Amino acid sequence: MRQESDQAETERSSPRHAGGSAVARRSALLHRFVVPTFRRYFTRHMNALRIASWGIPAVPQQGPVIVYSNHPAWWDAAVYILAADHFFPAYESYAPIDAAMLKQYGIFGRIGAFGVDLESPRGAANFLSAGSEILSARNRALWITAQGRFGDARERPLGLKPGVARLVERAPGCTILPLAIEYSFWLERGAEAFMAFGEPLRGSELLNLERPARLQKLEDELTATLDHLSADVRSRDPARFRAVLEGRAGVGGFYDGWRRMAAALRGRSFDPSHEGRHS
Hints:
Elements: H1 2-13, H2 22-25, H3 28-45, E1 46-52, E2 65-69, H4 76-87, E3 92-98, H5 99-104, E4 113-116, H6 121-134, E5 140-145, H7 163-167, E6 175-184, E7 191-197, E8 201-202, H8 203-206, H9 211-235, E9 241-246, H10 253-265
Parallel strand pairs: 1-7, 2-5, 2-6, 3-4, 3-5
Antiparallel strand pairs: 1-9, 6-7, 6-8
């Protein structure tokens, strides 16, 4: 009875009833244009996007996908876009964002973002309605910053919002993937972005749990993935990761110009990276 009541509330609050639909607004053509733009922007400002060798996602052959993650920084949106393009190219990807932010950056609505207000009952109902529509097709993926707010990657407990646990009731055939994200400075001027996917979960299996236990299971899986990733990040060992994207190494400007000239005078090739400064 409670799920039927939830369904009725969702239908009344549906964004389709309000004249909008995340699926209808998404433009595949614009998305193809935006992804390279994000790739160039990322490599200009960050040193690298790295994925843990053990954290390559097990992408299902078919069926909708929910990717849920922690939310450590503004860069998470770029990580979503780049990871979706790299690891889930056959999927249409969508993501909820703050409704006020969507009004300010309307272009995101054309590449799969939809606005929600998770602080209100109506906003939560809109989130479930949009999620139901997205997950009704086998070739769609829904990416969720499940904390619903910015939080340090070391924060425990993560405090996931309950919406991610309720979505599986609308899409029991979905695959759920935890995604851990962390940022750190290693040797270069730019920061490193790190990611790792956890073990896939089946929606039909999660439905065997009551909502509180289901949410706790999702939180436990993401926490374990984050802990594993953080240990690798602290090791500062690039061999534990695979580079998804790499930016331009070095400091640039006069400093790198001087290093380049010094290397030429010695008859050596110039390596702009910090480790190559004595070459």
